Amino acid sequence: MNAAFWDKLQKVDRRVLYVVLVVLTSIGLFLKAEIPVAVDDSSADFYAKLMKIDPNKPVVVQTDWTISTRGENMAHLECLLRILMTRKIKFVYYSATSDAPAFQVATDVIRHINEERKAMNLKVYERGTDYIGLGLFPNAEGANESMRNDIKKAWGGRRVRMPDGNETDIFQTPVLKGVNSMGDFGLMVVVTASDTIDFAVQRLNDKVELTGMATGVIAPGMLPYYQARQLKGFAGGLKGCYDMEYMMKHGINHPEEGGKIYVNAGKIVGEVPPLGSGKDLARATQYYADLHIALSLLIFAVVVGNVAMFAQKKAKKGAE
Amino acid sequence: MDQYLFIKLSVGVFFTIGLYSVLYKENKFYRFCEHIFLGLAAGYSLVAIWTSILYDQWWLKMTGVPAEGTSKMVPGYFMYAVLLPIGLCGYMVMSKKHNWMSKIPIGVILGLWSGQQVKNWWTQYGAQIYGSMQPVIPTTWSSLSRPALYTFNEAGAKVPLSPDAAAVIRSNIYATQALSNFIFVVTLVTALSYFLFNFELKGKFLRSFNTVGRWLLMVGFGALFGSTVMARFALVIDRMSFIWNEWLKLGR
């Protein structure tokens, strides 16, 4: 091929690539393939932890993300809520970030999961009896520090409207009855798109078992915490969330029909069952297949661009 | 309700397309969407500051909450009122004459923050320092890699090993573990050595050590960048899903 061809290839308008990306990612959404995956140790630990915690102890969910990272964090929170609701674990949630819509966004996800469960004839979670929303705390450092010192003072005076219409002190509700300190929670999960996980580790990792779900940008920074056992497990990025959905369907070390084990995590001793009821493969599964298409396009463009550059140089040298 | 939802989603799609239109070129449609977005964000934050933050965390604590139903009355604590003038002092930064007053809230925040840092530093990094002390010499050569902590029964199902057998396996360092730990320790030490700026590294060995650290840091940055790219793609995919799955109700 002559230099003109490579020259033309090098000068392809970037907008053409954008159009190709939009078309391919749109097509990818309709594929919904269940891609076999080797789950990360951190995801396996997180799933095993969620499936093994005492259902009589409530879980704290700190949700620090907004629409700008919905692609990953919404899938994370949906996945977490499906597990908690299926296991009938009560939870309390709040946002500790300066992004004002964070709490509302999380509330919308709870409503959406409740609608999904209602359509599947599963138990719907009621505010006050099954979960409590505490609102927005604009400063994660301050919020986590006061929770560490005295949970009753940090959340004191708050009331929640119960299903019967009466307002009740949050510590008198079935969710928080008997909770006097962070150690009384079964687990804390930080769903985040920012460094709030750092503050939770600094302030709370010695008070409550801490786990996390974070975007692909934040997740690599969580690895040192996981390796030092400050985090008992985490789901990082879309891959981590797909791992979770995959384990929700197949369990860990769990033989299915014909004795086939889909997730063989040697680190986890014994068997962790799949979720059993409710949705398992959902948003992350759909996006994960699509991510492969987008990344293939990226790799293809990088390879073609580099080949074109070298071929162009070679053709120019030949012409001289 | 369905009609309201459709209108809401349609507005979302309108602004999604508007904001992505900048990829074609800078245009007025994009600017319009951007300004609406910024205005909404500012307005929403203003309301949220009162409803979600100041009302719950300051006003109710100051004024107290009356008894209702089974809930007892919570007495108010009027010392919270002192926080208002202290906080407002922060705005004095705008005044040339009185800007010294803005240093009061900054001083309080810095004092509180500094006091917490010693404990926080140790809680954050103490466990990581301890976890970095990894053994690099194998304690057994009975197997190159760590044996599984389970066995299979006659039906082919996994059965955990006895606690004693598992404890023996866990207490040993196998060759592949030692190699992995060695790579970890070399990476840690060389990467840290890259940040030694107090004295000049002399000699071929020390300089090479430093160079290895720089290369390993670059490998780390490459992995971080790869993870970031995946995160960005997830955002595009979600917007496509918003249009196709949620708005047009196709492919759900």
* Major sheet details of chain A: 6 strands, parallel
Number of strands of chain B: 2
Supply the helix-strand structural class of chain A. Answer: alpha/beta
Give the tally of β-strands of chain A.
8
Question: What are its keywords?
Answer:
heterodimer, A: 320 residues, alpha/beta, Rossmann fold, 2 domains, six-stranded parallel beta sheet, 12% strand, B: 252 residues, two-stranded antiparallel sheet
Short summary:
The complex is a heterodimer of chains A (320) and B (252). Chain A has 320 residues and is of the alpha/beta class.
Structural write-up:
The complex is a heterodimer of chains A (320) and B (252). With 320 residues, chain A is of the alpha/beta class. Chain A has helices at residues 3-10, 14-28, 41-52, 70-86, 102-119, 140-149, 151-154, 196-204, 219-227, 237-250, 283-319, and strands at 59-64, 91-96, 131-137, 159-161, 167-169, 187-192, 210-214, 234-236. In chain A, the strands form 2 sheets. Chain A has a 6-stranded parallel β-sheet, with helices on both faces. In chain A, strands 4-5 form a two-stranded antiparallel ribbon. In chain B, 65% of the residues lie in helices and 2% in strands. Chain B is built from 7 helices and 2 strands; from the N terminus they run ααααββααα. Chain B has a two-stranded antiparallel ribbon with strand order 1-2. In chain B, a hairpin with a 5-residue loop joins strand 1 (150-152) and strand 2. The radius of gyration of chain B is 30 Å and the shape is extended. The mean pLDDT of chain B is 90. At the A-B interface, helix 2, helix 4, strand 3, strand 5 and helix 8 of A face helix 2, helix 4 and helix 7 of B.
Structural topology:
The complex is a heterodimer of chains A (320) and B (252).
Chain A: H1 3-10, H2 14-28, H3 41-52, E1 59-64, H4 70-86, E2 91-96, H5 102-119, E3 131-137, H6 140-149, H7 151-154, E4 159-161, E5 167-169, E6 187-192, H8 196-204, E7 210-214, H9 219-227, E8 234-236, H10 237-250, H11 283-319
Parallel strand pairs in A: 1-2, 1-6, 2-3, 6-7, 7-8
Antiparallel strand pairs in A: 4-5
Helix pairs in contact in A: 1-11, 2-11, 3-10, 4-5, 4-10, 6-8, 10-11
Chain B: H1 2-20, H2 28-63, H3 83-89, H4 103-132, E1 150-152, E2 158-160, H5 163-171, H6 175-193, H7 204-247
Antiparallel strand pairs in B: 1-2
